[in-house]
């Protein structure tokens, strides 16, 4: 390393010295001092500390780690390398996939309809501020409860099955979509609404002539995104709450038949379906925009 | 001895788009040279072939007496420390301080470890302050770069290049994103550096009048070929039209008269 | 004037037509889907008021539930720590993996392709599959949930970080290359500082998401707060179950507020 070539011979001038910041050990500092930089550092430190704390406090129950990892790898190899159906037929699996798809469709449509009216109450630029605040807190509460808990709660009164699954999924979707829709409505130019109000338009006229046309593309994009989430959630609900569809097949294969081959087959079907959905969603989103 | 010599350099992208065609240019030590030409003429490619951000398809690049056309790895890093580069969009790390960005000029001289962790010597930091003082940025030293104006950001870019102790500074459209005031300040600094520190400057410029005003020598580039190479004073209107392949009255410089 | 009016009517008619067609399509889709899933719309819609009535009547914590609070909070803390640890570990791995998958920082094009495919694979295999697979060997252990969530989070964050790195690194990578910096220096001095705010935002968001998924996985694998809910739920001890729900809500909303605050400062 050749550092001396153009290095200054003399010390820094007095004016410059005044600007130089030094650390306690007398070394020149280089970093910026900003609130955001501090926040980043503190957040990273806290997250790392919490992770370490987690690893120290976990109850590992004297598990033989190496053994478990080896077992998992062997099982994973069986699952992914030898997919085979035994307790079900390919047509039945595809039909169950379609059922899951339909559960997603139902909960997305219902959720979107509820969310549309909810968002009108929630968006600050067209709703009463107090109503908006109340709706926002309710929505925050609904979203904070995991979907599976909603499904199980609905199952008490409606029984396990499609009604409980759709209601639970709908509830969580509505919470999610109200927030998303309201944000798209809030992005709207207030002038448009004001102009319509001035010309004597009523609330629903404003909604259908101004609000809907200007935010419909965002709303559609959000709805498609939620459909993807609902589809994967519907699989999980089938597996964890017996709500039907391909998730239930997965649950049976995993917990009753202990058949890794069947699980593998189902997994591949699901992965293919999700990737197809993702591609379709990207295409639709590009078109809507 | 010339600082830079390009011999019959050609560059083709994806086997189809031809950016440079048989370009030969020699730059002597201490020169201030501007390259002008229409968009897409290959100015950017020419500049980037000098520090090997772009690899020439054919031809030879000689920097400071060394054939660098094929150098790789560590040697390429060492070679790159000899050329500082200034960009149109400044290319700073916006979330870091001015000091940290200027010190990035030392990375090529440092070990992987101390460079990655940003451990610089006191001497390097003092040198950074010297350069900042020279560019009138001392008060900004501890500000984050996203707090600076465009002109200030470009001065940080120059400081970073100087920190490398380069033989040659490459400027890729240094004033294209700046207002006229800031542009003049930047060009004055570049000339000052060239005159007092004897660092060779090679610039890409969009503004023909600026190029004529500041540089001793001008290279005209049209569709990947050198169409003019000579003193700035001898560049007449007819040649400019030829470089830009346009007719009289079509260029924006015409409106000045 | 006449012509413009006619034109307006035309647009209006067209809009009406599109609206009607879309509504018809949605209704048809809904009808087909309810037929396939044997979903009874009336029963479904009436389930909402019935569920609310039931929640108000039965899902209220009572004295016995309050007694269980310490235990619930212990499991809640375990779940929260698990989510943080999972997210932090997978974020660190995903960041370095994403460097290999990004357009600007990839080591070689083939490897970048492989990285993207691997990420897509981990992202799209449902977490319940991972949970079941791990259950076979790890049993009812906290590590089952840890690895199941790790794999999905890792896949998702890898894709996100690839996008982030692509976005931030174009300019600064070129400048650092030109100054003679090597790969590791460019990563730590250029890419990391440019993308750290974005990375933290995603980590906070994923912690929130993982608290919710760990409830689901807990039900499946018999661990954490999900297991506790399932236990009370199956014993028909709804007051205690409701306390579990409330504690999760408080935790998630608290996290939302904290991460909202952090986002405001760092972005």
Written description of the protein model:
- The complex is a heterotrimer of chains A (289), B (257) and C (267).
- With 289 residues, chain A is mainly α.
- Chain A has a domain at 92-288: MetI-like fold (Orthogonal Bundle), CATH 1.10.3720.10.
- Chain A has eleven helices and no strands.
- Chain A is flat and about 85 Å long.
- Chain B is of the alpha/beta class.
- Chain B is globular and about 55 Å long.
- Chain B has two domains: 1-82 and 169-257, Rossmann fold (3-Layer(aba) Sandwich), CATH 3.40.50.300; 87-165, no CATH class.
- Chain B has nine helices and ten strands.
- In chain B, helix 5 crosses helix 6 and helix 6 (150-163) runs parallel beside helix 7 (180-196).
- By secondary structure, chain C is mainly alpha-helical.
- Chain C folds into two domains: 2-55; 67-266, MetI-like fold (Orthogonal Bundle).
- Helices cover 88% and strands 0% of the residues of chain C.
- Chain C contains ten helices and no strands.
- In chain C, helix 4 (69-101) crosses helix 10.
- The model of chain C has no long low-confidence stretch (mean pLDDT 90).
- Chains in contact: A-B, A-C, B-C.
- At the A-C interface, helix 2, helix 3, helix 4, helix 5 and helix 6 of A face helix 1, helix 2, helix 4, helix 5 and helix 6 of C.
């Amino acid at each position: 390393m050749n550092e001396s070539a153009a290095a200054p011979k003399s010390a820094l001038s007095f004016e410059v010295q005044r600007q130089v910041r030094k650390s306690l050990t007398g070394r020149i500092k280089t970093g910026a001092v900003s609130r955001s930089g501090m926040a980043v550092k503190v957040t990273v430190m806290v997250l790392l500390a919490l992770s370490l704390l987690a690893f120290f406090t976990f109850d590992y129950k004297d598990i033989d780690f190496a053994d478990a990892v080896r077992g998992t790898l062997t099982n994973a190899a069986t699952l992914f390398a030898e997919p085979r159906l035994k307790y079900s037929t390919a047509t039945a699996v595809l039909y169950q996939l379609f059922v899951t798809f339909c559960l997603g469709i139902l909960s997305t449509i219902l959720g979107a309809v509820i969310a549309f009216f909810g968002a009108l109450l929630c968006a600050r630029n067209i709703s009463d501020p107090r109503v908006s605040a109340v709706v926002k807190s309710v929505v925050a509460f609904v979203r904070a409860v995991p979907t599976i808990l909603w499904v199980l709660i609905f199952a008490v009164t409606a029984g396990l099955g499609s009604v409980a699954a759709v209601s639970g999924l709908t509830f969580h979707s509505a919470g999610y979509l109200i927030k998303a829709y309201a944000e798209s409505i809030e992005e709207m130019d207030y002038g448009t609404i004001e102009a319509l109000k001035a010309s004597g338009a009523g609330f629903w006229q404003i909604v259908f002539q101004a609000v809907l046309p200007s935010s419909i593309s965002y709303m559609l994009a959000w709805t498609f995104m939620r459909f993807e989430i609902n589809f994967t959630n519907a699989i999980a609900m089938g597996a964890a709450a017996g709500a039907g569809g391909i998730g239930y097949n997965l649950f049976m294969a995993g917990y009753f038949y202990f058949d890794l081959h069947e699980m593998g087959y189902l997994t591949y079907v699901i992965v293919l379906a999700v990737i197809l959905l993702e591609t379709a969603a990207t295409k639709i989103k590009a078109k809507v925009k | 001895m010339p600082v830079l010599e390009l011999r019959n350099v050609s560059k083709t992208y994806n086997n189809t788009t031809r950016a440079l065609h048989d370009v030969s240019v020699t730059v002597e030590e201490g020169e201030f040279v501007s390259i002008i030409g229409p968009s897409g003429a290959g100015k950017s490619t020419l500049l980037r072939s000098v520090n090997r951000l772009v690899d020439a398809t054919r031809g030879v690049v000689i920097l400071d007496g060394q054939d660098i056309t094929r150098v790789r790895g560590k040697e390429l890093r060492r070679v790159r420390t000899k050329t500082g580069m200034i960009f149109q969009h400044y290319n700073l790390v916006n979330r870091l301080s001015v000091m940290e960005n200027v010190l990035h000029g030392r990375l090529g001289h440092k070990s992987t470890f101390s460079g990655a962790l940003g451990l610089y010597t006191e001497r390097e930091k003092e040198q950074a302050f010297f350069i900042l003082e020279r560019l009138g940025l001392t008060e900004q030293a501890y500000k984050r770069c996203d707090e600076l104006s465009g002109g200030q950001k470009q001065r940080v870019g120059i400081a970073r290049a100087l920190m490398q102790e380069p033989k040659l500074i490459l400027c890729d459209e240094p004033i294209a994103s700046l207002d006229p005031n800031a542009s003049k300040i930047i060009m004055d600094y570049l000339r000052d550096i060239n005159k007092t520190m004897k660092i060779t400057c090679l610039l890409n410029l969009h503004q023909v009048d600026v190029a004529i005003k500041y540089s001793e020598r001008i290279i005209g580039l049209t569709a990947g070929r050198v169409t003019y190479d000579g003193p700035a004073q001898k560049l007449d209107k007819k040649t400019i039209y030829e470089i830009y392949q346009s007719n009289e009255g079509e260029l924006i410089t015409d409106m000045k008269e | 004037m006449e012509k413009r009016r006619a034109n307006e009517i035309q647009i209006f008619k067209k809009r009406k037509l599109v609206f009607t067609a879309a509504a018809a399509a949605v209704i048809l889709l809904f009808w087909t889907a309810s037929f396939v899933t044997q979903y009874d719309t009336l029963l479904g819609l009436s389930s909402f008021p019935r569920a609310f009535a039931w929640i108000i009547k039965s899902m209220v914590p009572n004295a016995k539930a309050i007694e269980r609070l310490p235990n619930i909070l212990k499991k809640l803390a375990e779940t929260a720590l698990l989510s943080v640890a999972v997210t932090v570990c997978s974020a660190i791995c995903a960041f370095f993996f994403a460097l290999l998958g990004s357009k600007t920082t990839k080591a070689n094009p083939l490897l970048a392709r492989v990285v993207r495919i691997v990420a897509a694979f981990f992202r799209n295999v449902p977490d319940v599959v991972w949970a079941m697979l791990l259950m076979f060997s790890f049993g009812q252990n906290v590590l089952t949930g840890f690895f199941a969530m790790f794999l999905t989070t890792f896949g998702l964050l890898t894709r996100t970080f690839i996008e982030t790195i692509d976005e931030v690194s174009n300019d600064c990578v070129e400048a650092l290359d030109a100054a003679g910096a090597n790969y590791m220096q460019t990563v730590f001095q250029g890419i990391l500082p440019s993308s750290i705010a974005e990375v933290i935002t995603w980590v906070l968001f994923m912690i929130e998401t993982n608290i919710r998924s760990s409830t689901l996985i807990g039900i499946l694998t018999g661990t954490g707060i999900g297991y506790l809910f399932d236990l009370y739920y199956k014993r028909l001890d709804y007051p205690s179950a409701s306390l579990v729900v409330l504690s999760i809500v408080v935790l998630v909303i608290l996290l939302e507020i904290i991460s909202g605050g952090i986002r405001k400062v760092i972005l």
